[in-house]
Amino acid sequence: MTTSTFKDTNLLTFPHTIPDPQESAPALLSRWSDTLVDSPPALIAVPNTEQDVVSAIAFARSNNLVVLATGGRHGSGIPITPRTLYLDLRNLNAIQLDVLKEQVTIGGGVLTGDLIRHLAEEGYFTAVVNSNAVGVVGSFLGGGNTSVNGLVGWMADSVVSLRIVTAAGDVLEVGSSSSTGEEERALFNALCGAGHGLCVVVSATMRVYPLSSLGLSPTSSEDPTPSIWNRTVILPPDAIDSVVNTFLAFVPPPEPMNMILAFSRGPPGSPLAGKPILVLTSTYYGPAKDAEDSPAGASLRRPSLASKALKTDTTQVPFPRVNAGVEALNAHGGLKTMFSARIGRLSSQALKDAYARYVAETDRYPDAPRTAIMFHSFNPRKSAELNATPEGAGKFLEGRDRGICIVGVSWCQEPATQEALAVFFDETLASLQKADEEDGRGPWTFPGTFKFLPERRNLLSRDKLAELDRLHAKWNGDGLFWNPYKA
């Protein structure tokens, strides 16, 4: 495809690339996952301004292309086809802090790590996910599960207003209070939790919170940087009973604390490379002494647990580096798919069975050693409290009373392995959700990490799904934007 193939090329006054259809799509377009990247897009556009986004949308309409807006390139369920206009927002990366309003306004291409560091330098934080390489906007469009869920709620709860470009090419400000009409408020609410494919978010304003409000301890006697208490215990497979009992004993943990159980294999280059392991990690967004004195924190130092450990480590992590421990997971390439669920209750036997099958499946496929399952336990009280407010209830988040998020990452090299692991994850998630079914609660997931269809039935209530369909019909009726929620 060449420039002469397209109409209205005068609109492309900003950086763009028209790929050769014969080029290797992954080599041309580096993404976290090569899944569903079967061919190069029709055009890669890198706008510098809001008006460039308007022009890109007009160009796509003239040429019958489907617009896919992206920030961090981490969406694993996003198909890229020869009809895709790949709108790379990386140059919309401004960050502006308003200390008086305790708000920050970010461009649509800002990455999580950049926002964390910028705010920490000014003495603030906001709700963000645990990967520095992920786009901030893409995260809250899917709700945004964070390490501060227990303190300030989900990412979507911290979103105040958005500046967007619609499929019609209009620039609008939408928000819970700044919108001028009911339809704009309805659009804003859907963007806060299930917002993919409704428009292009060129900037977002979010609440920020003083780091001083957390009472964090300094990193060390020589380094006054506020830091997060972190305790990590790595154990062998035969410690599964102790690990599961320790994890479930503190569900939910204290509000400043996160408890994470991971089924994993030792990373390349380590003494445990490729070997199945169990990882228990706890972080505490408060004074280190409070973490150490809490029953949950003390449980990770119990001699009966530590004696089984392959490795233990307690550190104070400087706040700007809070996500550094998972940097290896940000590597691009390979066939990766994410699976998720929001859980209210887990049975110990289901966890043990899931681990046994995880070990067996990753033993079976030598190209899948980086496949992992993580169980994130947090206190859901704040999220449920926000849901009781008019603003919180309007946002498209469900299952707010559930304090466990399960996220599985299928990571392999061969399509046959990917297919087999998909069956494993589907069956494993169904087994882990049985305790909720026994309690009369249906399965819930969240759109940041789910396989978009047909799992939409587990995403939102029937009424909210109907409203989401209505909003797509109004704002994206001709399908200019890729819509992952289409019924």
Automatic annotation (TrEMBL):
Cofactor(s) named in the record? FAD
Q: Does the keyword Oxidoreductase apply?
A: yes
Organism's domain of life? Answer: Eukaryota
Which Gene Ontology molecular-function terms are recorded?
FAD binding; oxidoreductase activity
**SUPFAM superfamilies documented for this protein:** FAD-binding/transporter-associated domain-like (SSF56176)
Cross-referenced InterPro entries, in alphabetical order? FAD-bd_PCMH, FAD-bd_PCMH-like_sf, FAD-bd_PCMH_sub2, FAD-linked_Oxidoreductase, Oxid_FAD_bind_N
Which keywords has UniProt assigned to this entry? FAD, Flavoprotein, Oxidoreductase
- The residues covered by the FAD-binding PCMH-type domain are 37-211
Can you tell me which family this protein belongs to? Belongs to the oxygen-dependent FAD-linked oxidoreductase family.
According to UniProt, the name of this protein is FAD-binding domain-containing protein
Protein species of origin: Trichoderma citrinoviride
Lineage at the top is:
Eukaryota, Fungi, Dikarya, Ascomycota, Pezizomycotina
